[in-house]
Specification:
Blueprint: E1 7-9, E2 20-27, E3 30-37, E4 42-50, H1 57-70, E5 80-85, E6 90-94, E7 120-124, E8 129-133, H2 137-146, E9 149-154, H3 155-166, E10 175-179, E11 183-190, E12 193-201, H4 205-218, E13 228-232, H5 239-247, E14 251-253, H6 265-268
Helix pairs in contact: 4-5
């Protein structure tokens, strides 16, 4: 995944010889710090801060600063730092149609944006597409003050790249459903080409099944036959899985391939983003 001009360099705590990497996941509902040990290839540290749904970027920055103060692990030197921005201010554009000088204009059709918003973009699928989005600029500015360099991406770029990789050699395409605490993403590739991607906000399990069945209908798929792979915040015991399985028969839960002995196994065993965010 390319990140355009979004590798930002300064002068403090990046050491290429370090054996650990840091990724910070940022949304208005909260944030997470995650450290991976490059020698063991294991997640060594994970700390999450949950916030109210109506949190502002200003309050989010306060929580970010709090996290750095409270966790000694974050005072280490890292070989790299990556920020992952989570929001619904993004859209995928075919590369031949993309003009970086007018990046903001692609978002005005499906997002509420301001004239002075800054649009960033990730080049995905070997530059076949561009994912345009609005990052949290105040968060980037703060990280810029702390580290000599960092990279940032939109979370949907990571999902799309991973699903495309999973579907690369399949003969029967699967529909992917990624579930977070209050939003979900649906992704569908045919012959390794992105056919459908959308994000939906939800409040109840009924919202999830409504958007899922609506998408299946729009794609003219058969709910009795289409393989559905669920990633993210899901288990066979929860209500969301139960209502999905009531209507979709061919359901599986994504395996992140995290080591079962890892202390964060239960939190990350079906996660498609975090382990691919370094």
């Amino acid at each position: 995944m390319e990140t355009g001009q979004k590798t930002i360099q300064k002068k403090t705590r990046i050491e290429k010889t370090s054996n650990i990497k840091l990724s910070i996941h940022i949304s208005l509902n909260g944030l997470s710090f995650c450290i991976i040990d490059l020698i063991s290839n294991e997640i060594d540290f994970l700390r999450t801060y949950s916030l109210s749904k109506n949190t502002t970027p200003k309050e989010l920055l306060k929580t970010l600063k709090k996290g750095f103060k409270e966790n000694n692990e974050l005072s280490n030197s890292f070989s790299s730092v990556k920020i992952i921005h989570y929001n619904n201010l993004s859209t995928v554009v075919p590369e031949p149609l993309f003009d970086k000088n007018n990046a903001l204009s692609y978002l005005k059709f499906n997002s509420k944006i301001l004239q002075n918003d800054y649009a960033a973009y990730d080049e995905i699928f070997n530059n076949e597409c561009v994912n345009v989005y609005i990052p949290y600029v105040n968060i980037n500015n703060y990280i810029f003050k702390m580290f000599d360099s960092f990279v940032y991406n939109h979370y949907s770029s990571i999902i799309l790249e991973k699903v495309k990789l999973n579907e690369k050699n399949t003969t029967t395409p699967s529909l992917y459903l990624n579930i977070n605490s209050n939003h979900m993403e649906l992704i569908y590739f045919v012959k390794n080409k992105l056919t459908f991607y959308n994000r939906f906000d939800f409040s109840t399990k009924e919202d999830i099944i409504y958007y899922l069945l609506f998408t299946i209908d729009q794609l003219k798929l058969n709910p009795e036959e289409i393989p559905l792979v669920i990633t993210g915040n899901i288990s066979e015991d929860d209500d969301n899985y139960q209502i999905i399985y009531k209507y979709i028969r061919n359901v599986s839960i994504f395996n992140s391939e995290i080591n079962q002995e890892n202390k964060f196994y239960n939190s990350l065993k079906s996660d498609i983003i975090l382990l691919n965010s370094f």
